[in-house]
Amino acid sequence: MEILAPPSLTRFGFNSATILDLAVIKDFILPFSIISLPELYFDHNPVKITLQLKITTLHNSVTTHTDWTKFQNYLKNQIDYRPLKINSNTDIEIAMEKFTKNLQNAHRFATKTVKKSTATYIHANIKDLIKTRNKTKKAWQTLRNPLIKTELNRIEKLIKKLDKNSRQKDKTEELEALNTEDKEDTLEKSKDNTQESAENPSSTGRKWICIF
């Protein structure tokens, strides 16, 4: 049996930074890696464990998109948090099972399946800023330096500005594409009507049918 831990911290805080997240493996001989990811805007990093199994997976044409705001709101509003009374190993197992189930339900609620072609695109500049923001946030949580807090606020404002501009640009391009499609449809219908009129002149006027 072997205990795995990431090489960098997973919990950040003033005088409380440490590695909280571990993994246990047994009789596993294939290559693996474990890293702490500064992906979220919190004082606790998610941990990614990669097990290099020799399995071939088929290409999937769909992906998933998680709305993390909905995820957080679900946990805030739907879960009744109460102080835990842990007196035995069984209590720990029950608490962990409930915790895991709550996270899974929140993720299921906030996640939808989308085609890869329509997945949300985030500009590379914004991605880099988000990574910088997350690192700066953790530095602020650890050091409590006012200058770091000022820089964090500046990055936040810049991300919001770039994101707003990017969304407006996407919306404009979408509307332009729709307008182009409408014009093409109108032009095509106009051509069809012109051709029909040329082939059948009476189609442009009234038809009178008399039955005796």
Automatic annotation (TrEMBL):
Residue ranges of the region described as Disordered: 169-212
Polar residues composition-biased segments: 195-205
Entry protein name: Endonuclease/exonuclease/phosphatase domain-containing protein
Gene source species: Araneus ventricosus
